[in-house]
């Protein structure tokens, strides 16, 4: 008997040898050749595959004659599963009753696969634990071996060294999971003390004062001149800073690199050695046109690449030509002339011939029949001249080539395989020497169609469903683009069903019918793979059931990449994991069932955020400004601090405290959020407590205490319902109103209100919408049943819609209607609703008013009192203004706050100084500047018919002593009235569109 040992590293060599002489591998087994195999055994008994799976994949079968070829094929098949690193085959005679045969034993050594990889211990940041884990390059689910661990330890040690932690130690430890052949790796890190920089050594052709270079490195602290601790980022910033230093000296080819970093253990210091080759000074000039240095640095790539060669200079010449053409110099020519180095200086001249300045006055398109002209223009970069956005148009030869290619691709993707697009330019267009026209002539040619489509190879999917998703079907235009779309569509369906190795081939041939093509698709499905089990690791505080509820994969499901990624997204959406890694264990193994792995890193459970800001503008309600009922301009600093405890109870619940302090308002909001309430992904329950103290913002100062519970239900992708029950107590003070109203309006307000809010959002971009609708309906009921002292209903409806106008403009409109109806009240109707519950408006809702300044006012002081009804309508025409980043807005706002819905009116004239129930109109112009967080908004509004009212010209004491005497004040009164009005001009500044 002879034992054969195969290791994975020698597997392919063993196969090659087996082809030469099978007796070399199984020489002793020859004497058992042909004898029946009575028993097949595996040692150890616990195998990574079930007994049924093992016997199913083995060519060697029990009861059949022993053949060396079957043994060899069995070894190959076992290795192909990827589950083994070592296999030994042993055979010995065995007698069972009267039958003499052999026992074949497979002695196996299991493979191991990488599970979780964590770094812990004494880690001095930087680097962070996550950076060390990434440096190890140990990928989840990949085969494990000792060499990978050695490489990982070395890589982490190098990362520590690069951050000055030269004494750091990395020690790996392992946890084995025999059931899943998975090994979790933990690196215990002891960072040690961080080294500090020391005086750097400068080598090479420096050409600058070493002290200036040392200052540029910033290795040493300013003023106190002590050396900073070494980190990788500081080294990188130092090299960049030194390079910038040479750049400022016009030494564009300067080379700065870190030659070495020597560690001195006695002083715990790091000695950097910088290799510097300054190179000559290089001056870049333009001859024939004046181009700023900034433009040269932007368009000539030698400044970015820190190198000078003919390719970069030629690219710079082309870029400068395109820039000049975009400025209207359509005939511009640019060439470069490099000079030799003389006295440590080289000059590069770009010779520019701008030619006359033109304006792209027309773009004429002809020959198009299949597509209309507007559809073609939408795909073009060329733009006719417009007054502000493109004063000379947008034109260059490269843009013209790009547009021709875009039109060709458009036609070819719709079956016009022989399409041609010719272009020509015409100067002196319509007799104007400065005008230029571009003419595009399209020769469409014949359109090709699919005559027949034959699909071969679909066995495991629904043929009808697959064919229904294709675009290249009988009678449709034929193009390679459509075939590519079909390929992606078919393979996506196969991948989603676990056919990871599915392939797609196609061919075509002309049909006997003219301009018709017969298509033939060939699909090779390959082996379907399934989920053996989903393994989740990394949970410390999070409950497993929370994760399990969000798994879209289960054992036995097809191994779908779509579902794997969808689960990853859902786990991220929980908001409790900073990192979710997903992988397939043993991805290259030839097995139909595979483990899906998710390695989770829990985010920090506590988070703290600080903010600093300010408000600048006209704020209403100034205590010391009784003669300025529309407010006073000022600067109001603001700070905020938010503290949150995430993943409470391990269930993704969150409790947070958000605070804001300013000279105008002090605010604290305590919120408890329970997402996926009752295991429903569409429900979120939240509890809120609010303290809000405000002054100098409205007619009154107030202190608000509120508790609320809210249930959010997502009905569909764009519709959400909010059910809310709130109880609040609001006390007001420092009212700037007629004295006899103070006692009535300053009573503490206790309101319990239940409300339902429906939100429908179908906008294409919530930050800057161009199409779609946004609707909200808010219905509220305050009643004694909810603990409310006042009974009323509240309705607030808003509808906003957005319509593209042509290619560039957007027409946006928003209408808001609200009404509050009081019931079970037997006093004076005007005083039935407390001030804090009334509607206040202005500012963003109507730009003809400052914030909170719309609606009824006090007859003595002129300060706003709010109302029971509102109507606001805003219309904007948004259009590009300058280039692609700056847009303009023309707007019209109309509406007002009304004392009651019965007094709603569209009239535009104010009857008297006590009449505020009329429609105020405002027009204006705004600018929008695109930023990553939304457009920066500046609006200037002109109110056409602002309200006039009686104002109070006196002190607070005079107001208190005034009594119920109305304006105009009689002779000898302790105060004087003066007629005021809301200013015709208002301005607003914020981030985001108005609506």
Describe the protein in words.
The radius of gyration is 39 Å and the shape is globular. Helix content is 19%, strand content 40%. A 16-stranded antiparallel β-sheet has the order 24-25-26-27-28-29-30-31-32-33-34-35-36-37-38-41, with no helix packed on it. Strands 1-3-4-2 form a four-stranded mixed β-sheet, covered by helices on one side. Strands 8, 9, 10 and 11 form a four-stranded mixed β-sheet that branches. It has 19 helices and 41 strands. Mean pLDDT is 89; it is low at 1-25. With 995 residues, it is α+β, with helices and mostly antiparallel strands. Strand 26 and strand 27 (665-675) form a beta hairpin. The chain folds into eight domains: 4-110, Ubiquitin-like (UB roll) (Roll); 113-190, Ubiquitin-like (UB roll) (Roll), CATH 3.10.20.310; 196-277, membrane protein fhac (Ubiquitin-like (UB roll)); 282-353, membrane protein fhac (Ubiquitin-like (UB roll)); 359-443, Ubiquitin-like (UB roll) (Roll), CATH 3.10.20.310; 449-524, membrane protein fhac (Ubiquitin-like (UB roll), Roll), CATH 3.10.20.310; 530-602, membrane protein fhac (Ubiquitin-like (UB roll), Roll); 686-991, Beta Barrel (Porin), CATH 2.40.160.50.
């Amino acid at each position: 008997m002879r034992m054969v040992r195969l290791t994975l590293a020698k597997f392919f060599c063993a196969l090659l040898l087996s082809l030469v002489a099978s007796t070399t591998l199984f020489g002793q087994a020859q004497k058992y050749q042909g004898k029946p195999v009575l028993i097949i055994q595996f040692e150890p008994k616990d195998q990574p595959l079930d007994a049924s799976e093992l016997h199913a994949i083995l060519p060697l079968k029990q009861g059949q004659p022993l053949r060396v070829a079957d043994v060899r094929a069995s070894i190959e098949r076992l290795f192909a599963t990827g589950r083994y690193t070592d296999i030994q085959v042993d055979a010995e005679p065995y007698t069972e009753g009267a039958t003499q045969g052999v026992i074949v034993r497979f002695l196996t050594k299991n493979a191991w696969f990488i599970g979780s990889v964590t770094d812990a211990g004494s880690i001095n940041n930087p680097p962070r634990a996550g950076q060390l884990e990434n440096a190890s390059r140990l990928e989840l689910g990949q085969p494990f071996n000792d060499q990978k661990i050695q490489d990982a330890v070395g890589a982490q040690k190098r990362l520590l060294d690069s951050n000055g932690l030269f004494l750091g130690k990395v020690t790996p430890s392992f946890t084995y999971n025999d059931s899943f052949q998975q090994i979790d790796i933990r690196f215990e890190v002891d960072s040690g003390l961080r080294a500090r920089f020391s005086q750097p050594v400068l080598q090479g052709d420096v050409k600058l004062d070493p002290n200036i270079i040392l200052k540029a490195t910033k290795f040493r602290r300013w003023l106190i001149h002590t050396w900073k601790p070494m980190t990788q980022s500081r080294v990188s910033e130092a090299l960049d800073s030194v390079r910038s230093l040479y750049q400022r000296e016009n030494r564009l080819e300067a080379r700065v690199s870190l030659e070495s970093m020597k560690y001195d253990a006695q002083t715990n210091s790091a000695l950097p050695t910088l290799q510097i080759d300054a190179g000559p000074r290089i001056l870049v000039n333009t001859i024939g046109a004046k181009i700023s240095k900034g433009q040269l640095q932007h368009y000539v790539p030698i400044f970015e690449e820190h190198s000078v060669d003919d390719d970069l200079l030629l690219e710079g010449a082309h870029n400068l030509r395109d820039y000049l053409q975009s400025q209207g110099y359509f005939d511009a020519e640019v060439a470069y002339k490099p000079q030799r180095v003389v006295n440590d200086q080289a000059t590069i001249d770009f010779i520019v011939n701008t030619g006359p300045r033109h304006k792209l006055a027309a773009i004429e398109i002809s020959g198009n029949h299949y597509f209309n002209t507007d559809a073609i223009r939408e795909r073009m970069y060329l733009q006719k001249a417009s007054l502000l956005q493109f004063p000379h148009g947008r034109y260059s030869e490269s843009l013209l080539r790009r547009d021709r290619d875009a039109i060709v691709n458009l036609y070819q993707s719709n079956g016009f395989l022989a399409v041609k697009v010719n272009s020509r330019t015409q100067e002196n267009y319509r007799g104007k020497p400065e005008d230029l026209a571009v003419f595009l002539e399209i020769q469409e040619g014949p359109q090709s169609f699919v005559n027949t489509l034959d699909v071969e190879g679909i066995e495991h999917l629904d043929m009808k469903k697959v064919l229904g998703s294709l675009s290249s079907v009988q009678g449709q235009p034929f193009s390679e683009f459509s075939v590519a779309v079909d390929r992606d569509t078919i393979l996506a369906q196969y991948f989603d069903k676990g056919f990871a190795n599915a392939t797609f081939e196609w061919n075509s041939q002309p049909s006997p019918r003219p301009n018709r093509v017969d298509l033939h698709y060939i699909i090779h499905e390959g082996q379907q793979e399934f989920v053996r089990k989903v393994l989740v690791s990394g949970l410390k505080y999070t409950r497993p059931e929370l994760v399990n509820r969000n798994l879209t994969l289960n054992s036995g499901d097809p191994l779908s990449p779509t579902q794997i990624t969808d689960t990853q997204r859902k786990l991220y959406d929980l908001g409790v994991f900073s990192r979710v890694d997903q992988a397939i264990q043993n991805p290259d193994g030839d097995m139909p069932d595979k483990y899906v792995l998710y390695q989770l890193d829990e985010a920090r459970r506590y988070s703290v955020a600080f903010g600093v800001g300010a408000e600048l503008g006209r704020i209403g309600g100034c205590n010391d400004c009784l003669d300025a009922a529309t407010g006073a301009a000022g600067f109001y600093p603001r700070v905020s601090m938010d503290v949150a405890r995430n993943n409470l109870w391990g269930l993704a619940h969150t409790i947070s405290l958000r605070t804001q302090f300013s000279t105008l308002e002090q605010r604290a909001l305590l919120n408890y959020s329970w997402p996926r309430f009752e295991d429903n992904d569409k429900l979120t329950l939240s509890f809120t407590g609010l303290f809000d103290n405000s002054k100098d913002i409205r007619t009154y100062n107030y202190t608000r205490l509120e508790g609320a519970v809210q249930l959010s239900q997502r009905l569909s992708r764009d519709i959400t319902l909010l059910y809310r029950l709130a109880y609040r107590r609001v006390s007001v003070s420092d009212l700037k109103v007629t004295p006899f109203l103070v006692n009535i309006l300053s009573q503490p307000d206790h309101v319990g209100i239940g409300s339902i809010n429906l939100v429908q959002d179908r906008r294409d971009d919530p930050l800057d919408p161009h199409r779609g609708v946004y609707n909200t309906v808010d219905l509220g009921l305050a009643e004694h049943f909810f603990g409310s002292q006042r009974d009323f209903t509240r309705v607030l409806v808003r509808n906003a819609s957005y319509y593209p106008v042509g290619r560039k403009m957007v027409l946006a409109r928003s209408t808001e209607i609200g009404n509050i109806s009081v019931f079970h009240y037997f006093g004076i109707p005007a005083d039935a609703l407390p001030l804090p519950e009334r509607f206040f408006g202005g500012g963003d809702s109507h730009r003809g008013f400052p914030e909170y300044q719309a609606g009824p006012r006090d007859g003595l002081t002129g300060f706003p009192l709010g109302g029971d009804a509102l109507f606001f309508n805003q219309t904007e025409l948004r259009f590009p203004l300058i280039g692609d980043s700056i847009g303009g807005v023309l707007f019209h706002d109309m509406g007002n706050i009304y004392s009651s819905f019965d007094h709603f009116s569209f009239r535009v004239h104010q009857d008297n100084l006590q009449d505020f129930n009329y429609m105020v109109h405002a027009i204006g112009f705004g600018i929008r500047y695109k930023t990553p967080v939304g457009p920066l908004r500046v609006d200037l509004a002109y109110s056409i018919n602002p309200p006039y009212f009686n104002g109070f010209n006196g002190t607070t004491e005079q107001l208190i002593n005034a009594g119920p005497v109305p304006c105009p004040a009689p002779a000898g009164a302790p105060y004087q009235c003066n007629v005021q009005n809301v200013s015709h001009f208002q301005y607003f500044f914020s981030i985001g569109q108005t609506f």
